[in-house]
Amino acid sequence: MLAYSLRRLLIAIPTILLLIVACFFLMHFAPGGPFTSERPLPPQVLANIEARYGLDQPLWKQLWDYLYNIVVHFDFGPSFKFKDRDVNDIIAQGFPISLTYGSLSFLVATAVGVSLGIAAAIKHNSWIDYFAVGLGIAAQALPNFIMGPILILTFTLWLGWLPGGGWHGGQWQYLVMPVIALATSYMGSIARITRSSMLEVLNSNFIRTARAKGLPTRTVIWRHALKPTLLPVVSYLGPVFVYVLTGSVFVDIYFSTGGLGQAYVGSALSRDYAVLLGVTILYGALTVVVNLLTDLAYAWFDPKIRY
Amino acid sequence: MLGKSQKAAHLAEEITDYTVIQGRSLWQDARMRFVRNKAAMASIFILAMIVLFTIIGPYFAVWSNEEIDWNVMGDVRGMGMPSIETGHYFGVDDLGRDLYSRVIQATTTSLLVGLIGAATALIVGTCYGIAAGYIGGRTDGVMMRFVDILLAIPATLIIILLLVVAGRSFFMLFIALGAVGWLTMARIVRGQTLTLKNREFIEAARAAGVSEFTIMYRHILPNLLGVVIVYASLLVPEMILTESFISFLGLGISEPYTSLGRLIAEGAGTMGYGTLWQLMYPLTFYVAIIITMFFIGDGLRDALDPKDR
User: Domain named ABC transmembrane type-1: which ranges (chain A) (predicted)?
Assistant: First the structure.
């Protein structure tokens, strides 16, 4: 187990480094930049600006400085667009917000999805099952950017119960719709995965044995069926994390939460490559770390896997 | 006495009824299972109607997708609603452009994105996966490590990055979608190839002197096809979803071309003014396409991979 963890870690570190290098080169071969405007700057001014951001250095030196600053100081450099802010400020301001409703929707989707799936499997072919399956499919066809408008239409415009956007330090009224919009789609996926996994487990021999020796249904499900049922769900948590990350880009924009997604799309539209790269690298590195944790959790969870 | 009872006579009749049982190939079997799946067949019918609509719909359009109806533009809420008389069957959008033509254009875009994106992923992923799995050894290790690294980065972010860096165009959109779609496909195909390549029939082919390339093409590829088709059919809605997501953010293809994600975004932006049709028409088409694709994918999986039910 320890050897396996170390080996996975050894793969994760070069992955993150490679991600940084690849993104860096993508940025440098991009046509145009934040300083190309309709009114061209005098060459002397442009040279001064480039010297300020270190863009006059040879490419390898720039790459080295960029890597060094990220790895050693966790510093993504200055923003190209905002003179008085660097990328770290922007991340520090937006990321906690995205993290708050992201982890909330993660919890909601997992809890609701798993219980829905288990209920459907236990009451197989009953109205609960059909309801859960229908809900799961409908939820999957309603990704966050569809749910957002539908929720605003219903709860803000028609019923007038909830504010249509904003953050206000994360009061619950401002949290409800972002969390639901983000959670719905993969709540559906989790419910479907849990249901089919539970059905498979309930039909297996060791469950029949457990039933045959007279255990009450409750014990059979909680003690014997639950753990193997959750295995595929655990391995799905990595993709779920990616959904939450990319989905938060939409939620930040649509509900104006002030999260990192707003800065991300804003930088993409204004070609502020420093911010674009910083956020991409941060999200990529987080994904690598979460995938690593998922794999380790899986290895710990599944008695059959021994590395 | 034994042969006299009615039941026994009936049984005897059944036993002596020699009808030749025709063998069925795996593909015929799969087709039968698919045809029997009502949800999948209904989905195919609905999807076919949508495709048909995008083909013959333009002949009934009064306005093109770029024209602005100046008469309606000032009062979209009062005069821009769906009506037969003005020729705006689905109403107009916020700028006075005909929504009927725009929905047709957007649906075509979304369907094309799904198909071409999935096809690119299918071809690249299959070739890569077969090569990695069949060659094996260190080559396989290096090739799959590369895929693992790329898979570690959120796909949507890569697409956005590519579109920003290389400019927004149809061509770039397909490239970007294909560039991230093939990774999982390559992984699946490689896994299947690994289990296939040590089987007896491959060994037999090699003993008979068949060249390595022919073995891959003739013997491994056909045996992969089921898995590949199932995964590709699930990839199509995923591609459409991703493209719509990016278009919704305004980072997808640019005007006058549009896609369903963009139309939904525009409709969502103006729904506060009471012009709900701007949201509902694209939304209906979008949800119909995604749900039917899901059902078709599920049907294909049940048909081609029966053990997975």
Answer: 95-294
